[in-house]
Design brief:
13% of the residues lie in helices and 30% in strands. By secondary structure, it is of the alpha+beta class. The protein has one domain. The strands form 4 sheets. A 5-stranded antiparallel β-sheet has the order 1-13-12-6-7, with no helix packed on it. Strands 2-5-10 form a 3-stranded antiparallel β-sheet, with no helix packed on it. A hairpin with a 5-residue loop joins strand 3 and strand 4. It is globular and about 50 Å long. Keywords: Signal.
């Protein structure tokens, strides 16, 4: 069965004009059982960068944001498949460096959905309006997959793409400070304090759940990620390096 899935991920420190940055996707791979779902609960698995034919290509989306699409390879949906009776949520963990702490979530809505940073993205098979929404979605073909309506059966999905899109600097600055000048100063401080030799190392984990995880206290989220892992059905690591162009 051939289909195309896109998973769009927001990265807090990549929130600058597409022409201002250079990004290298160093490597990406499925999470192990220790950092991802328990083996018996794994339903969705994206391919590793080591798989023959897998590559990232750069593109600009309709809003002018820089995106990277992983093409080639296959995604596996394990039995019994993704049920159409459920909604799917992603917890996106963003760290600066391998040993960095998760960046805080900025500007989630009243339901605990969306935002920039280590945030929860809700009902990823549905298109929402407004800023800082639709950062994480599953697409089938050129439209959102009907995974919360028709479901997705088990099998190997070819022509798979993992799409990584970057919020714009203008989308982030108002959340640093409402004063434009102070926001610019905070941005410069943020970049300079985290960059090494002009480069920012990023580590991102996208963990997919088949039940609501928004509006949960931090202790419960931590348990779902590292302890019980209840409802976790997929996980993928992305390692990238970002540099700001002069």
């Amino acid at each position: 069965m051939k289909s195309l899935l896109f998973l769009s991920l927001p990265l807090i420190v990549l929130s600058i004009n597409p022409n201002d940055i250079s990004v290298r996707i160093e490597r990406h791979f499925p999470c192990s059982a220790s950092t991802g779902p328990k083996k018996e609960n794994l339903l969705l698995k994206f391919p590793s960068y080591k798989q023959l034919g897998v590559d990232f290509t750069e593109e600009i989306n309709a809003s002018g944001n820089k995106c990277f699409r992983m093409s080639g390879g296959r995604v596996t949906i394990f039995p019994p498949g993704l049920a159409g009776t459920k909604k799917y949520y992603v917890h996106l963990e963003t760290r600066i460096g391998i040993h960095g702490k998760p960046e805080r979530c900025v500007n989630a809505d009243s339901e605990g959905c969306g935002g920039i940073g280590s945030c929860v993205h809700c009902d990823i098979c549905k298109t929402y309006g407004g800023q800082l929404k639709n950062f994480v979605q599953i697409y089938q073909g050129n439209r959102p997959a009907q995974c919360s309506a028709q479901g997705l059966p088990s099998g190997e999905y070819e022509d798979l793409s993992l799409r990584v899109c970057l919020p714009s600097k203008n989308e982030l600055l108002p959340f640093l400070d409402q004063n434009a000048n102070r926001a610019e100063q905070l941005w410069d401080l943020f970049v300079s304090s985290r960059a090494r030799s002009g480069e920012i190392p990023l580590v991102i984990a996208a963990r997919i759940f088949d039940r609501p995880i928004n509006n949960l206290p931090a202790s419960e989220i931590n348990d779902l990620i590292h302890g019980s892992k209840t409802g976790m059905i997929g996980c993928h690591w992305i390692y990238a390096t970002v540099s700001q162009n002069n």
